[in-house]
Amino acid sequence: MSIDTYAICPCGSGKKIKFCKCKDSVHELDRVLTMVEGGQLVPALDRLASILEQHPDAAWALAIRGRLLMDLREYDSLKENAERFTRLQPSNPLALTQSAAAAMFAQDLGKATELMLEALTESGQNVDSFVLDVASLLSYGLAGNGILLTARIYATLAFVSEGYEGNGMAANVLQQINRDPAVNLLVKFMPELLPRPDGVDWAERYDEAALLLANNKIVLAENKFDSLQRTAPLQPAVLSGLLTCAVWRGDYQRQIELLKKLSECESLSDDDRARYLATSFVVGPDSDPISVEKRTMTTEVDSIEETMMSLSSHPRFGELPPDFLQQLKGDNEIGPRAAYQLLDRDPPSEDGVPEDLALVPESIGLVTVFGRETDRAARVEVVGVTAQQEQTARDQLGLALPGRHFDSEREGWLPLNYIAMSQPGGLKVTDPNAFESLQQRLFVDRGVMKLAETAVPLLGDQSLKDAAGDDSKWLERAALLRYLEGEDSLIARDETMLQRLCEIGNRPAPEAIRPTGDDVENIPAYDLNRVDPAGLDTENLVYLIQRAQQISATRLGRVASRQLLEMDLPSEGELAGAKLLGYSFLMQNATRSEDALENLEAAKKYAEAHNFSTASLLLAELPLRLRRGEAEKFQDCVQTIAKNHGNDPEVMGRLQQLLVQFGLIRPDGSPVQAPRGAAPAQAESSGLWTPDGGGSAPAAAAPPAASGGGSSSKLWVPGMD
Q: How many whole angstroms separate alpha carbon 688 and alpha carbon 349?
């Protein structure tokens, strides 16, 4: 096939083939592409090497070779190819992108991000798919390193680019960030470029910089914003432009600096200032202003037997079982001889959970005892103790091991939100559901005061409670509360928490947002849990519930779901099954498994009454039953799925995936092990549990040839017949 010399050259220069230096060698392009499309990647690489020997300036060959090397994970060769490509065409976006990919695979995300910015600057309006491929990979790496706003902006670039068909990875990165309840809501929305004031003498320069940003000319835009900052310091619009450039650069330290400067702009509202300062806590992998220091304490001992006896006899040290010791050992050759929970109070004398929550002890550290090693003496190590609890730990260790001095050093930092989590210890509780309920009750009972009484660097090593009367720290207190408001994993477990913290911290509670149907889609992620959906119609409630699922805004999803369940819905049409969405949200986001099951049962009754499929609800029931240790109900649920949906390959395939995930069957359907609490298998069976409680598959789930034999030990899945 003849080459169209007026087509754009595949080398990435942006020139037509007729006017590109590649014109003398590009006649080989069709042959190479045919080999690639046929899966002959190695022969294609050989052919490209031959072409480059004959035509050293064949940039198109270097462009295609780089893509193939990346697909084959030949990263050293990719680096060499990128260096040669860049020497040949220093401003070529594909050459810069290959260099970015090589830097990324070498774990140098900073250099990779800078090279990607240069590639985007040189790309113009039409960004090559290869550039977007690498942008998606870069966003994945950035997200894994906690540089979340930059990960979001590169993933969004790939996701929204028109005509780009490889945006699956970018969509996955965005979904993982959005749905993770451990990611603060403040970084689930990109800071916007603020509008400039009217009538300023630098308006034209600002508009030029904003236009460059819109066209992905980040380096050029940053130069203009830098110049503007010297002319108009502490202007929110200019600072927001520089912040956007810092996000593109992946420079989270610079992002923190600019967010703090924005929080100092008195022309912004108090809430916006607090939000910018709070966002500075979560844009990078470190959150030092609101972190709590953890300490490790160590001492050497002469006799580990005496040490273990002393610790075991002291009520504040709860001995942990042997299987926990094995977990601590992991892959190490030598593990601890004993381990104990260091408790904050004496455990109750009776078994079970005491009625008075004040009597329930919590673990404040892990104490491990190690025997003598070749190069180390026998020792006691205490880990996980916060700096605030160190003196308490020392006091108890002094009582159990008198005369021993413990050296202390920093172990690391713990984000403030983890302080609210409760770790009951020293109790004899065998029912996992009772223990789960106890954790939730303790969280509600103690979580607020733990957060309010913990000192943080942001407040000058004071707690929120202690700094409540200091007017000079109003912004820091407001920012701390804004940060906690964005921690969905906290607010979801106690919806009154923020209100109580605001009262303690001497700050007004956030005002409710009451949207109309026209503006419900414009609410930023960080404000979703402030929404009061009263008065919205069914369609907007469904939208809010779906948005709450996507962003992990649990409070909003619950409120909207409860409101939806109280409404009268049409029996036909798109919204007929909307209540199932509400039930499902309440089930998936329940704080206790009992509440989840209650909503699940209500959803099943509603679905059956309105002739909706119960397949997804039954599949959602399986992990709940397994987590609660209800083996018989788990098996009943599997039987029901097999009976009612055995002829649906999609449902049965999903059932098989779940059972494989649970470790109950192998991918081919053969059983692996019995779940906790399952009845012993019959003697004539293989001795392994299968979904029908014996050694054969349910008749409804078996293929026709095996349904009558009773000897099969496999669950039918699509393709097995």
A: 41
Extract the tokens encoding 385.
């103790």
Tally: H helices and E strands in the chain: 28, 6
E-strand ranges in 69-202 read: none
Q: What distance in Å separates the CA atoms of residue 431 and residue 434, rounded to the nearest whole number? A: 5
Please list the helix, strand and coil fractions of the chain in percent, rounded to the nearest 5, in that order: 55, 5, 40
185-210 residue pLDDT tens: 999 999 999 999 999 999 999 999 99
Cβ atoms within 10 Å of 696's Cβ, excluding its own: 21
Query: Cα(491)–Cα(511) distance, rounded to whole angstroms?
Result: 16
Of the chain, the percentage scoring pLDDT greater than 90 comes to 60
Strands, sheet with 407-415, edge to edge from the N-terminal-most edge strand = 317-319, 338-343, 363-370, 379-386, 291-300, 407-415
> Is there a contact between 416 and 291 (Cβ–Cβ < 8 Å)?
yes
pLDDT band at 505 (very low <50, low <70, confident <90, very high): very high
The pLDDT of residue 705: 33
Q: 403 and 318 in contact (C-beta within 8 Å)?
A: no
- Note whether 538 and 575 are within 8 A (CB): yes
676 pLDDT above the threshold of 80: no
Q: State the amino acid at position 350 in one-letter form.
A: E
Phi, psi of 687 (to 5 degrees): 85, 5
> With 0-12 CB in 10 A as exposed, 13-18 as middle and 19+ as buried, what is 543?
middle
Least confident of 54-58, 220-224, 563-567: 54-58
Strand-pair partners of 413: 293
Are 263 and 279 in contact by the 8 Å Cβ rule? The answer is no
To the nearest whole number, what is the mean pLDDT of the chain? 86
Alpha carbons within 13 angstroms on the beta-carbon side of residue 108 total 12
Looking at residue 261, its amino acid is K
What's the one-letter identity of residue 332? N
User: How far is 170 from 176, CA to CA, in rounded Å?
Assistant: 10
What is the CA angle 442-498-391, rounded to 5?
Answer: 50
Residues contacting residue 430 through CB under 8 Å, at least 6 positions apart: none
User: Could you please report the per-residue DSSP string of 618-677?
Assistant: HHHHHHHHHHTT-HHHHHHHHHHHHHHHTT-HHHHHHHHHHHHHTTSB-TTS-B--PPTT
Give the three-class secondary structure for 301: coil
Closest CA to 269 of 478, 412, 446: 478
Identity of residue 267 = S
CB atoms within 10 A of CB 36: 18
Return the pLDDT at 693. Answer: 38
531 pairs with which residues across the strands? 513
**pTM attached to this predicted model:** 0.85
**Are the C-beta atoms of 130 and 166 separated by less than 8 Å?**
no
Average pLDDT over residues 118-137: 88
- Tell me if 483 sits within 8 A of 476, measured CB to CB: no
Query: Do 525 and 546 meet the contact criterion of CB atoms below 8 Å apart?
Result: no
- Radius of gyration, alpha carbons of the chain: 31
- φ/ψ (deg, to 5) at 205: -65, -40
Find the mean pLDDT for residues 59-64: 85
Phi and psi torsions of 577, nearest 5°: -100, 20
pLDDT digits (tens, 9 = 90+) for 84-102: 999 988 988 999 999 999 9
Specify whether the CB–CB gap between 379 and 257 falls below 8 A.
no
Residues 6+ apart with CB under 8 A from 126: none
Distance of CA 87 to the CA centre of its chain: 40
Does residue 458 carry a pLDDT above 80?
Answer: yes
φ, ψ (nearest 5 deg) of residue 435: -70, -40
Report CA 632 to chain centroid distance, whole Å.
Answer: 34
